[in-house]
Amino acid sequence: MKKETEFAHIARPKPDKGTAVNPGITRASTLLFEQAQNLYRTDMRTYGRHGSAIHDAVESCFNALEGGEGTSLTPSGLSACTLAILSVAKAGDHILMTDSVYGPTRYFCQKFLAGMGVETEHYDPRIGANIKGLIRRNTSLIIMETPGSLTFEIQDIPAICGVARTYDIATMVDNTWSAGLTLNPLALGADMSIHSATKYISGHSDIMFGAVVSRTGNIADKVTRTRKYLGYATSPDDAYQVLRGFRTLNTRFRQQERSAQKLAEWLSTRNEVEQVLHPSVPDHPDHALWRRDFTGGACLFGVILKPRSQGQVIAFINRLRYFGIGYSYGGYESVVIHCDPQLDRRFGGKLPGPLIRFGCGLENVNDMIADVEQALGHVF
Ligand SMILES: Cc1ncc(COP(=O)(O)O)c(C=O)c1O
Predict the structure, then answer these.
(1) How remote is the CA of residue 202 from the centroid of ligand 1, in Å?
(2) What are the tens digits of pLDDT across the range 210-238?
(3) Helix (H) or strand (E) holding 355
(4) Among 56, 47, 54, 108, which residue's Cα sits nearest to residue 80?
(5) Of the residues 244, 279, 304, which one is the last residue of a structural domain?
(6) Are residues 92 and 209 in the same domain?
(7) What is the pLDDT of residues 142-166, one digit of tens each?
(8) Residues of the domain holding 369
(9) What CATH number did the domain enclosing 109 receive?
């Protein structure tokens, strides 16, 4: 069964006499029992933090999306990243983290985990099997993200996971970019795949939500236990919206993927542009790796402009009409940011010009192109 078929049918109530198509929401903190002895059972939910039927449905969707053996839901994508890390790391450990990781995940390790006695070392996202040279006796986790946040490097997941397996080191991949539709890190050997469902999966820029999907039952148990210790819970209303997002995910994603591809191709023909950072563009340095491991693209890509002043870059962005100026992506609306103020890299050197990131929404792509064209023409 194709994923869009599965997401149209998963977790639907059995029709009876006029049954609603969608499952209901149960809001609860306290759960009541007829028998006192049930309060201490471990084989059933005893408190609201343990979830509800809607949470179970969303977990099934994530397991179906990635072919996972278990999913833990979290209140944001960042908390999904930190949950995966905390499920593995302990005082005295050494973690290897791609230099292209999402910024707040980087700062969680640098500024919080370091204080708990966990050392984080950044590596070149293009390191591949050479990661072997960085492994230490106490390395417990390798963190990947592909494409990298802002700079869009593609990582060699099978090569890195192959090395990790030899040394019994856990691996995780932030898979937010692909929504799980064009990349399956678990099938390529990763232990945990992370999603910010805030983006495409909820799809309307009104929900914060995340998930850690695990390759095996053992890993899933570890993550579930850690989630319980941390007390992460998600509201059933938000879970409902995420389930609703899954119903239409594939259709929305495919249109946004096509629009981004077309806009990226158009931008790569423009004189104002130094380089388009979308792995589907043939001159992207990791295009071959992307073709090998991905089945498609996504809505988000970067553009390095020819050298321009910060003022010109800001004037260009302010001139756009259909691209909202804001963080995140994957909603129905197009967004744009300038990236240089937040770029923090040890590898890869200085970029040849200012970096802008576009996230395509569901507007008509010709309107998007016309919008970018008028802003470029006005400012440059
Ligand atoms: C790759 C990636 N991972 C994680 C996150 C964090 O997700 P959230 O905003 O849901 O906390 C983001 C948000 O932009 C992201 O781009």
Answers:
(1) 13
(2) 999 999 999 999 999 999 999 999 999 99
(3) strand 355-359
(4) 108
(5) 244
(6) yes
(7) 999 999 999 999 999 999 999 999 9
(8) 249-379
(9) 3.40.640.10
Q: Is 306 a catalytic residue?
A: no
For residue 27, indicate whether it is catalytic.
no
The preferred substitution site among 196, 202, 358 for testing ligand 1, maximizing ligand atoms within 8 Å of CB, is 196
- DSSP designation for 41: -
Does 136 share its domain with 195?
yes
Could you tell me the CA-to-CA distances from 144 to 54, 182, 343 in Å, in that order?
Answer: 30, 16, 17
Pairing, β 192-196 against β 139-145: unpaired
Distance from the alpha carbon of residue 77 to the mean position of ligand 1, in angstroms: 5
* CATH code of residue 326: 3.90.1150.10
Annotated catalytic residue 174 = yes
CA of 357 to the centre of ligand 1 (A): 14
**Per the structure, how many domains does the chain have?**
2
pTM: 0.97
User: Ligand 1 in contact with 108 (CB < 6 A)?
Assistant: no
160 and 124, same domain (yes or no): yes
Q: Hey, whose CA ends up nearest to atom 15 of ligand 1?
A: 102
Gap between the Cα atoms of 64 and 112, Å rounded: 33
Judge if 155 and 126 occupy the same domain. Answer: yes
Q: How far is the CA of 42 from the centre of ligand 1 (A)?
A: 33
